[in-house]
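ok so i was messing around last nite and threw this chain in just to see what happens. nothing serious, just curious
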Amino acid sequence: MCMSLGCTSVGAVGCRIIDSPRERRLAMLTAPLMPCNGKFPLLLACAAMLSADGAPLVMTGAVVLAVIASLALSKLLSLTVLRGEPSAFVLELPAYRRPQIGRVILRSLIDRTLHVLGRAVIAAAPAGLVIWLLSNLTASGRPLMAIAAGWLDPIGVMLGLDGVILLAFFLGFPANELVLPLIAGGYAAMGIAPEFDALTAMNLMLFGLFHFPCAATVLTIRREAGWKTAIAAMLISTALGVIVCLITRAIFFLI
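result:
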């Protein structure tokens, strides 16, 4: 869970230390519920829209909500479709050695910084091409992005969002970091000034917190546990996001 705060893909790989196949699969299914580095820019923007002065408190509440949802879903799954006896957890501590600062910095630069930058380039380049094509290619005098957003708009309105936001989430599947610039680019390409009310900002934050994991995470879960678990992780997190948005929208209309 804690490793998923940095990267859900890393969190899924970290599940290897769990001996029980049932509990390993359970951890992989709930790992995407935690906010990763890719989700934080969108969550921070939404927190600032909801409360400029109380943004840190809103962000803390979002992380706490993710932890509660992850624990609750783990308990629910362990009592239903993934029932079984809990296993013992044995943690073996490594030998204590003097840290080698130079080697640590070099390894961090190669294994982490360059890996993340390479992943960002690989994900951002195709996404940028898709955005450019959708923004510049037209049909019946309308940009393809406007047409695609119009198709998704009824579903978006039902969730307290709109078609541009939903389209940004779909196009941001390669990397969660792309969702926020995709939203801004989508409105700019359509010549629309976004006007987010409290409901839109709240549900954007909730759906940004609970939605299908990025492509790297899906492929990692597929490699570790198979396609069934990967697809189940996508469906569970997305279903939770949809349900939470529907409940929030209903509450806003009742107030």
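not much to say yet. Residues 101-136 form the longest helix (36 residues).
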